[in-house]
């Protein structure tokens, strides 16, 4: 099977085909074995030489991404997470449309998107997670969702994860490896960075240089990885505004029938208009 | 929130879906309240009576000028005043007491009067008709009371009309009497004045003066006449002798002869000539005739003549005339002098009368004026009397029942069935209405258009609520429960409604 391995638009069906052909799978494995073992998945050094990772490695990496467990359809439905075969076609299409709009705006480059809501319980986590899942539909893309909600993190619960370490641990410990805080979610091509265990201590995590480094590294190193940051709402903490400076784009989640125009306009005036992609009405 | 119609509907539906229990509650509450109100809503039976006002009457133009019929400007307002007046309502309350076979106290009566006043309505139905209507809870009461109101009105109207003309008449009568007294007074004063100054009026005195003057003239004339008469008599008397000598022939034989002849004639009437008395008489007559021949008339003296001297009658008459004339002249003269005296006195009286002229004129005027008014009042009194009789006899403006009260078979106005139907529909619509109002008034964002239009922020997506199967099951269950409850409620409603409608339950 000779195919253009430079072709990034490797769809699911292609992957399945390759899997079905056992012989070919082996073939692949033998070829890329040494690459896998080379552990160049997530380097810990900050600077990376210009040139970037070769594209074929990326696609291989994507196809060979470690999925220790997968959430099945019922779980996903219960968790209100979209997946390609979801019976709720409307929601799936909505999120896909949202994803497409965002991709249009970004010009198909990867980005860090901040998703936040106007008020508590606005559903930013829900929208962020589903949006990330919709990014992960595409076999040529991966999504990384970072839970920055220090006071009330819900993403790991949603995904049934019990993480040991997370973002706050990483930010506090300068020697920690990024790889150690990236967790598979059970949704193919979607990774989660949970908030961590040191979230109770009030502290300015997101203004640190390390945070900035971290995001920069994430973005530059993986051109196919789309980063979605789930930030707390505007009323609860100013973290979202701080994070807004670090991100490429912003998205505001407005819950249905909960906030008035005035509140929305207040929130929006303080944001950078160029970065603000728009508003999503949730509910 | 300003939003287009479709989004409003969508939002309404969404609100309703999310508040199912509240919807149910509102629906049940509203319907139940409506039904209860309907059950206890009092029946209103209304009866009415139409009264015809007849103010065109044959008699009216006939009696124009001599009688005045009581004019009523606005029949309906007048009727209303009477019907809703104190008197009428008091009588009505008595009647109601009779109907109810109860005695009410003062306070109760007052309240009843107020209530009746509110329930009775008087409406104008045309130029000459008006309608009295009364509403009550029970049909028979409505009917009887309406009838009674009509009757009372007619009675009172009669009364008042009679009263009016009677009072008018009595007023005029009083005036007449007053003026009569006044007139009498004036006349008395005048009379008194005249009696005090009995000299009379100016005209009287003038007449007297002229009368006197004419009498004086007449007297003077007669004096002149008498004086001339005297002169003439004197002249006459000079030419007449005082006495006359006259030879008188005895006439006794002639006289006897005459007597005998008369006797003879008499006897001849009764007897024949052969009667002895007649023959004797004849013989006597023959004897007398042969004894003396017939005398000569030329005054030659014969046997048995005498010479008589007697007074000249002419002279006597003339003398007596003269004497009479002289006395007459004296009398006339005295008369003239007394007349002159009288005239003088009368002139004096005249002066006095002139002095009193003013007062007299005033008194006379008073009397005249009073008399005039009195006469006028007498006339008016007669007019009033005729009007009174006109009214008592039932002519003039009459009122009669044009359409009597009919027994109300059906209640009017809102009835139970209206309430029953309306309240269930209203109950069904209330949640929708409330939701609509809420959606409209709520300032919170529900629709993408708000943000896009007002804030100019692009809305990337509008993600609807994702429902998991478990949630869906729960929701369905909830909905079914709600529908069951609603269904049972509606059936209870229908049953209660039916029972009430068919009369089992009484409000």
What does this structure look like?
- Chain A has helices at residues 12-20, 22-37, 55-63, 73-79, 89-106, 124-137, 155-158, 167-172, 209-221, 239-246, 261-269; strands at residues 112-117, 142-147, 183-184, 190-193, 225-230, 249-255, 276-282.
- Chain A is α/β, with parallel strands linked by helices and 283 residues long.
- A 7-stranded mixed sheet of chain A has the order 3-4-2-5-1-6-7, sandwiched between helices.
- In chain A, a hairpin with a 5-residue loop joins strand 3 (183-184) and strand 4.
- Chain B contains 14 helices and 7 strands.
- In chain B, helix 2 (20-40) packs parallel to helix 14.
- Chain B is rod-shaped, with a radius of gyration of 64 Å.
- Chain A binds chain B through residues 77-78, 80, 88, 90-91, 94-95, 97-98, 101-102, 127, 251-252, 254, 256-262, 264-265, 268, 276-283, and chain B through 442-448, 450-451, 454-455, 457-466, 468-470.
Brief characterization of the structure:
The complex is a heterodimer of chains A (283) and B (507). Chain A has 283 residues and is of the alpha/beta class.
**Relative helix content of chain B:** 55-70%
Largest β sheet strand count, sense and barrel closure of chain B: 4 strands, antiparallel
Largest sheet of chain A: 7 strands, mixed
Mean pLDDT of chain B: 84
Rg value of chain B: 64 Å
Number of helices of chain A: 11
Strand content of chain B: 5-15%
What would the principal axes of the Cα set say about the shape of chain B? Answer: rod-shaped
Poorly predicted tracts of residues of chain A:
1-32, 34-56
Query: Strand pairing plus helix content of chain B: what structural class?
Result: alpha+beta
Which class of secondary structure composition applies to the elements of chain A?
Answer: alpha/beta
Distance between the termini of chain B: 45 Å
What distance separates the N and C termini of chain A?
47 Å
Rg of chain A is 19 Å
Mean pLDDT of chain A: 77
Q: Helix proportion of residues of chain A, in percent?
A: 25-40%
Secondary structure: number of strands of chain B: 7
Number of helices of chain B: 14
Strand sequence of the main sheet of chain B, in spatial order?
A: 2-3-1-6
């Amino acid at each position: 099977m000779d195919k253009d391995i430079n072709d990034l638009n490797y769809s699911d069906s292609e992957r399945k085909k390759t899997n079905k052909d056992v012989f070919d799978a082996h073939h692949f494995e033998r070829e890329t074995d040494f690459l896998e073992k080379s552990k160049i998945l997530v380097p810990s050094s900050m600077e990376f030489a210009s040139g970037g990772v070769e594209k074929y490695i990326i696609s291989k990496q994507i196809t060979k991404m470690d999925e220790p467990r997968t959430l099945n359809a019922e779980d996903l439905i219960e968790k209100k997470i979209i997946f390609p075969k979801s019976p709720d076609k409307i929601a799936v299409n909505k999120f896909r449309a949202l994803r497409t709009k965002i991709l249009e705006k970004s010009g198909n480059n990867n980005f860090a998107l901040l998703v936040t809501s106007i008020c508590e319980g606005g559903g930013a986590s829900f929208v962020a997670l589903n949006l990330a899942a919709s990014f992960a539909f595409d076999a040529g893309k991966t999504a990384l969702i970072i839970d920055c909600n220090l006071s009330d993190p819900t993403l790991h619960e949603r995904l049934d994860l019990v993480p040991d370490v997370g973002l706050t641990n990483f930010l506090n410990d300068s020697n920690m490896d990024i790889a150690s805080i990236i967790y598979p979610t059970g949704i193919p091509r979607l990774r989660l960075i949970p908030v961590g265990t040191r979230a109770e201590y009030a502290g300015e995590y997101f203004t640190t240089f390390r945070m900035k480094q971290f995001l920069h590294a994430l973005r530059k190193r993986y051109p196919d990885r789309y980063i979605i940051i789930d930030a707390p709402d505007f009323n609860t903490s100013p973290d979202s505004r701080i994070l807004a400076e670090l991100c490429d784009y912003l998205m505001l989640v407005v819950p249905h029938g909960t906030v008035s125009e005035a509140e929305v306009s207040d929130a929006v005036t303080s944001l950078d208009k160029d970065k603000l992609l728009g508003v999503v009405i949730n509910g | 929130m300003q939003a287009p119609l479709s989004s409003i509907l969508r939002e309404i539906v969404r609100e309703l879906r999310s508040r199912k229990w509240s919807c149910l509650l509102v629906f049940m509450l509203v319907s139940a309240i409506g039904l209860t109100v309907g059950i206890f809503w009092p029946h209103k039976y209304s009866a009415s009576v139409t009264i015809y006002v007849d103010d065109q009457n044959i008699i009216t133009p006939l009696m124009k000028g001599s009688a005045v019929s009581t004019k009523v400007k606005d029949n309906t307002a007048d009727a209303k005043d009477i019907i809703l007046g104190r008197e009428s309502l008091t009588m009505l309350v008595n009647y109601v007491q009779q109907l109810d076979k109860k005695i009410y106290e003062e306070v109760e009566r007052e309240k009843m009067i107020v209530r009746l006043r509110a329930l009775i309505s008087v409406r104008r139905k045309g130029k000459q008709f008006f309608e009295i209507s009364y509403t009550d809870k029970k049909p028979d009461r409505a009917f009887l009371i309406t009838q009674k109101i009509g009757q009372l009105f007619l009675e009172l109207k009669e009364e008042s009309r009679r009263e009016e003309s009677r009072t008018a008449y009595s007023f005029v009568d009083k005036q007449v009497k007053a003026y009569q007294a006044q007139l009498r007074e004036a006349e008395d004063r005048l009379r008194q004045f005249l009696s005090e100054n009995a000299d009379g009026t100016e005209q009287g005195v003038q007449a007297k003066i002229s009368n006197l003057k004419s009498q004086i003239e007449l007297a003077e004339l007669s004096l002149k006449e008498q004086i001339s008469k005297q002169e003439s008599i004197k002249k006459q008397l000079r030419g007449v002798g005082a006495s006359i000598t006259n030879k008188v022939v005895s006439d006794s034989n002639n006289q006897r002869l005459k007597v005998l002849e008369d006797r003879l004639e008499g006897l001849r009437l009764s007897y024949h000539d052969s009667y002895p008395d007649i023959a004797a008489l004849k013989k006597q007559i023959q004897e007398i005739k042969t004894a003396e021949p017939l005398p000569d008339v030329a005054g030659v003296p014969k046997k048995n003549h005498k010479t008589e001297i007697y007074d000249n009658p002419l002279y006597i008459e003339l003398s007596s005339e003269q004497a009479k004339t002289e006395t007459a002249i004296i009398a006339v003269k005295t008369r003239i002098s007394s007349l002159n005296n009288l005239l003088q006195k009368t002139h004096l009286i005249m002066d006095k009368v002139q002095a009193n002229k003013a007062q007299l004129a005033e008194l006379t005027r008073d009397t005249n004026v009073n008399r005039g008014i009195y006469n006028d009042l007498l006339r008016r009194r007669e007019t009033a009397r005729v009007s009174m009789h006109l009214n008592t006899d039932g002519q003039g403006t009459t009122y009669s029942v044009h359409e009597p009260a009919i027994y109300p078979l059906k209640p009017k106005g809102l009835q139970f069935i209206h309430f029953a139907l309306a309240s269930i529909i209203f109950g069904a619509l209330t949640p929708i209405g409330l939701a609509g109002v809420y959606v409209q008034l709520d300032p919170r964002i529900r629709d993408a258009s708000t943000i896009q239009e007002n804030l100019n922020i692009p809305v990337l997506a509008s993600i609807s609520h994702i429902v998991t199967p478990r949630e869906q099951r729960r929701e369905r269950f909830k909905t079914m429960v709600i529908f069951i409850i609603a269904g049972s409620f509606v059936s209870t409603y229908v049953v209660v409604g039916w029972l009430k409608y068919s009369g089992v339950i009484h409000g």
